[in-house]
Amino acid sequence: MSKPIKHGKNWRIRWNDHEGKRRSKTDRWSYKDAQLALQTQNLASHRIRAGIEPAPRLARTFSDGAKEWLENRAPSKRSSVADEVILRRHLVPFFGNRPMDTITQADLDRYHTHALISLSPKTVFNHETLLIAILNRAVKIGRISQHHPLKRHSLTENRDEVSYLKSDVEISRLLSAAYGLDARAANLYEFAIFSGLRKGELAALRWEDIERSPEPRIAVQGSFDGPTKSGKIRYVPILEQLEPVLARLSAIRSSEYIFSSRTGKMLDHDNRIFREKLHQALTHAGFPMRPDRPYITFHSLRHTFAAWFLRNEGSIYALKDILGHADITTTQRYAHLVPGRFEGQLGTLKSAKALLSVRLMSGLPDGLSETPEYRCNHDPGLKELKAQDDSS
User: How confident is the model over 297-314, as pLDDT tens digits?
Assistant: First the structure.
């Protein structure tokens, strides 16, 4: 008889079902609980083969497929919490009890149009990815024989639809309104705008992640449900705009998390601070809020940082490292947010001198006034380029 196998922080069990097919399941069990689950599955298969119990009905609807995914596949993924939210809020309500083998490209197109009313193109792209993965798994484990070919909608189709705060004035308007409504939320928004951290990375940020030596920086180590998106630790410089925010938060520190819930726990995906309170601040600041789509979403604050950083002559290579992109081509998509900024420079960037500094902006509340230039000294490659440029 097989035994539970350690799988990361989880345990995986494998057994043969009543049809002799190899099955597996991964969950956050203890070893003893995994042993019990394995014994239960083996006993159930034996009782069905012996005719003591009827064979289970195959999960054929999308709701069935989503449930099976959450029970057996999602627990082994870094994005398991995100999968649950996407399915509960979006995919299951839309596709409901549709048989999985009847979902067509036309259905996916309708969902795409429907979801774009309130979600960003990248978010909808992730939804489509999950939908197709669930259908592929249903075929793999024998729930359906096949499904219709489905193609996700390319992100390049919506490249010009990236939402972000487009100027220092817009940033100031949002923050001023937010501080007038809820200082706790405003601190989070200001930190997001001047760090470029993702939603989950901000939620998982602990005070121990703030480092002062050898230089002021943030050790980005986790997200909602585990490691960062890349699975690696990255270091983000603490720009001077962040210092007043950290000082205010430190004065009211009550949890190991920098941004915590009212009870001191990590913020979850559904916390009102990420959506409802942001919409309230946007409305209060006078931004156009169409009934079908807000001016920006919380993830737009990351885009805002990228645009602000490049607008203030930050290096696109430094931006790549700050945002945690694996490839420079991912970062280059932000170049269109600052027209003319990189004419003749993308791909080569031979003259680094003009791209090394970040001017601090003025006009924001609580001491965010004009100061000397911040130098991006965390990038050894840029240091070398600057040295070469200065000596020429």
Answer: 999 999 999 999 999 988
For the record, the structure tokens of 207 come out as 């005070």
> What confidence tens digit (pLDDT) does each residue in 240-294 have?
999 999 999 999 999 999 999 989 999 998 899 999 999 999 999 999 887 667 8
Distance CA 193, CA 278 (A): 13
DSSP state letters, 170-227 = HHHHHHHHHHHH-HHHHHHHHHHHTT---HHHHHT-BGGGEE-SSSSEEEE-EETTEE
- Structural element, H or E, at residue 24: strand 22-27
Q: How far is CA 277 from the centre of its chain?
A: 19
Amino acid letter, 79? S
* Alpha helix stretches (DSSP H) within 5-61: 31-49
- The residue among 147, 146, 112, 148 whose CA lies nearest residue 128 is 112
Rounded CA-CA distance 4/114 in Å is: 43
Cα separation, 340 vs 310, in Å, equals 11
